[in-house]
Amino acid sequence: MELIIIGFGPVAGYKYSRCIHNAVLQGHLTRYHVIDREWQQQQVEARLAKLPLQPATCTYIPERVLQDGPESGIEWLTQKGLLTKSEVKRKVVIMTEPQSHGAYLKHAIAQGFDILVTKPLILPMKDGVLDHQAFMPNINRLAEASTEAGVRTAVLCLGRLHEIYEEKVRKPVAMMMDRLQHPITSIHIKTASGVWNLPSEFSQREDHPYKYGYGMLMHGAYHYIDNLACLLLMNKKLFPNEDFVISLQGFTAGPLDQRMRTGNLEEHTTGYRPEFSELQDGLPYGETDIVASFAMKFRSSGRVLCLGTIALEQTTPGIRSWGPFPDLPYNINGRLHCTDVDVRLGTVYSIAANIMKQPIQARLGDADIRGMNTATVVTRSNARLARTQGFTRHQHYERPYGNSYSYSAELAIFKRWILDEPTQSDLVSHVPACAILDGLLKLAADDWRGNIDIDFNYPSPDWPALSEEDDPWYDYMGDAVTFSYQHGQRKAVVKNGVNGVNGAKGVNGVKGVNGVKGVNGVNGINGINGVNGVNGVNGVNGVNGAGR
Question: Which of 403, 405, 464, 531 is deepest in the core (most CB within 10 A)?
Answer without folding.
Answer: 405
